[in-house]
Amino acid sequence: MMATPGTDSVLQITDLAIRFASKRGEVTALEGVDLDVQEGEFITIAGPSGCGKSTLLKAVAGLTTPSAGSVRLRGDEVKGPRQDIGYVFQRAALLEWRSVRGNILLQAEMRGMDMRKAQARADELIEMTGLTGFEKALPHELSGGMQQRVSLCRALLHEPRVLLMDEPFGALDALTRERMNVELNRIWSQTGTTVLLVTHSVAEAVYLASRVIVMSPRPGRILEEHRIDLPGQRDYAGTLETPEFHRVSSRVRELLGAPAVAD
Predict the structure, then answer these.
(1) 15 C-beta neighbours (distance < 10 Å), count
(2) Which residues, other chains included, contact 71 with Cβ-Cβ below 8 Å and sequence gap of 6+?
(3) Which of 94, 180, 201, 247 has minimal CB crowding within 10 Å?
């Protein structure tokens, strides 16, 4: 089933500010951030290093407390870690002594899920992500891309309302990163999960998104938002040749001061 942004708001960020104390005084990571995310949207967040992109994800997950403003998920204010959120980090962070299936099911053990349902869900995700045949493999037997697929399966196991992804493919080589972009687009199209993804890659941001958010240098603010007028399920090479891709990516690069070349 193709995922299309709905009319129901799943996440509301209102006048969000986050400040940290440091030896040199108070540091403002985010200031005046407003964002409304609809059900089924794929939001990518681009911005310079240190602009608060990862801090924004942590605030949504309830891992960082706002200094001002609010974050609401399904109308409920986020005041601590949420059970209905999935999180994928740059590194897969798999347990080396557990198999692919065991690493995925770790989520179920930590959350006290019904194991029979969790095992069935794990099997679905393993098939969806092309890991069939590697269920018993250990992390050191997998490529970097396959390890990130396991991490993605683990994050999706409990069917989160919102999936947060913090530069998940940044450590991969360029070709593997492209393949993972294609896989993620396909998985999003099939599941309809609402996604917020942080990236430094302009091409990745525009290819994956239904909407691109561009942030300013610290303190991070939203400079512009760009809705992407492309089909939900996308061919990689074909998408990169479209006028819409070039229009948005050129503007994002202009805002970020990046050279107008492919990432």
Answers:
(1) 12
(2) 11, 12, 13, 14, 16, 59, 60, 62, 77, 78
(3) 247
| The pLDDT of residue 170 | 87
Domain 1-84+160-263 fold is Rossmann fold (3.40.50)
Q: What is the pLDDT of residue 57?
A: 95
Q: Domain boundaries in the chain?
A: 1-84+160-263, 92-158
The pLDDT-based confidence of 2 (bands split at 50, 70, 90) is: very low
Task: Kindly list the distances between the CA atom of residue 79 and the CA atoms of 165, 208, 227, 263, in Å, as whole numbers in the listed order.
Answer: 20, 29, 30, 37
pTM score, whole prediction: 0.90
> Coil, helix or strand for 175?
helix
Structural contact between residues 156 and 124, judged by C-beta atoms closer than 8 angstroms: no
Q: Is the peptide bond before 243 cis (omega within 30 degrees of 0)?
A: no
> Can you give the pLDDT at residue 26?
85
Distance CA 124, CA 117 (A): 11
